[in-house]
Write a structure and sequence with these properties.
This protein is of the alpha+beta class. The protein has two domains: 1-40, no CATH class; 42-154, Roll (2,3-Dihydroxybiphenyl 1,2-Dioxygenase, domain 1). It has helices at residues 2-13, 19-35, 57-68, 113-122, and strands spanning 44-54, 71-73, 79-84, 87-93, 100-108, 128-131, 134-138, 144-148. Strands 2-3-4-1-5-8-7-6 form an eight-stranded mixed β-sheet. Strand 3 and strand 4 form a beta hairpin.
Amino acid sequence: MEHLISKLLDDFEQGKLTRRQLVQSLALAAAATAAGAAVAPFKAVAVNHISYEVHDYRKIRDFYAGLLGMNISHDNGHECSLSFGDSILIARNHAANTPRIDHVAYTIDNWDRHAVEAELKRRGLQPRPDTENSFHVKDPDGFDLQIAGREMKP
């Protein structure tokens, strides 16, 4: 905990965090410590969307809509959104013959663009803005991870 507080204060003094971000981070750290939990700056609440690159998105669209009742939207002839519950599977045409998951986006609670960006930078994750409500980073194995607020719509 001492190391975390020291790091937060250093980041604040170097202008990497605003006063508000510092206070929020310290409050979060104190609450997590009091609860005996690991310090996690964000709380994932849903899978926002899964980006699925495929050879023929129409076949995938028809399969998932027909088998699992996913709702089709935003079909532009190259990709579409397949919604189910609060999540979306985005099927996209891709030149490769092998299908792959391009990235997964997680919705987090209490989105604050500046606080999220500051925390991601503090962790050395080099956030790449995607929308006003999301950033892309790489996980430890290099997989593309998108972190989004509730207002992020693919």
